[in-house]
Amino acid sequence: MPTRLLRLSSDTLIEIDKVSFGYDASRLILSDISLKFPRGKVTAILGGSGCGKTTLMRLIGGVYAANSGRVVFDGEVVNTRDKAQLFRLRRRLGMLFQFGALFTDLNVFDNVAFPLREHTDLSEAMIRDIVLMKLNAVGLRGAAQLRISEVSGGMARRIALARAIALDPELIMYDEPFAGLDLISMGVAAKLIRTLNDVTGSTSLVVSHDVPECMAISDHVVLLANGGRIVAQGTPAELMASSDPETRQFVRGEPDGPVKFHYPAASMQQDFLGSAA
């Protein structure tokens, strides 16, 4: 069956239309969610661990198929069974994985050159110029010949970002770009995301649970909760000013509120009596 072409408004690049997803029917990770990601903007997808943030990105990239609903990329319904379509769509997106996912047997230059060699017929001279420009954009042109074992965690994240933008993607997805970084590296990474988005005109999705960094660089924010619910969405200022208890608890980092520390369980008395029996 051919992929349907839909009419999206010019300011929408990705639409999530009533999507539900779970690895089995008994536990949904995402539950009937609908979202629109504006073209040319930075959208942060916030939420605690296990709420479906990374799963949502994998649905957009066609790694998983939704149990129900549609994922629409620039007017095309993403079809995980259409390999030709997936290859074409993935050529238009860049992905920064949580821990970089760099090739440790390649040096910095060859890591960034990898997608260019795989997906284009450019000459090595042209590839060299592009790689050096991308590395320069993340402040690491001088590190081109270093091995991955010789770079810090923060540098590795920037190398991965240079690789993600090597093909000038229209959509860049960042999976926990601030995880494990010191405060300086975190600030550098946040500024890079904002700057690259503005300079290239790309659309950026930032999956994170780091509130201050995301609020500082995002145009739009979506807050997810466990069970795949959308708790709130809007501008950073709107979420910070929200009176909703669940939103306030997350954006302010409050230990007490609607989100409980303990996973639902029977009472301890029931557990102990059951084990004694």
Question: Overview of this structure, please?
Answer:
This protein is an alpha/beta fold. It has a domain at 1-92 and 200-261: Rossmann fold. It has helices at 53-60, 83-90, 108-119, 124-137, 153-164, 183-200, 211-217, 236-240, 245-252, 268-276; strands at residues 12-21, 30-38, 42-46, 68-73, 76-77, 93-96, 171-175, 203-208, 220-225, 229-234. A six-stranded mixed beta sheet has the order 6-7-8-3-9-10, with helices on both faces. A four-stranded antiparallel beta sheet has the order 2-1-4-5, covered by helices on one side. A hairpin with a 2-residue loop joins strand 4 and strand 5 (76-77). Helix 3 (108-119) packs parallel to helix 5 (153-164), helix 4 crosses helix 5 (153-164) and helix 6 (183-200) runs parallel beside helix 7 (211-217). The protein is globular and about 70 Å long. The N and C termini lie far apart (58 Å). The mean pLDDT is 83.
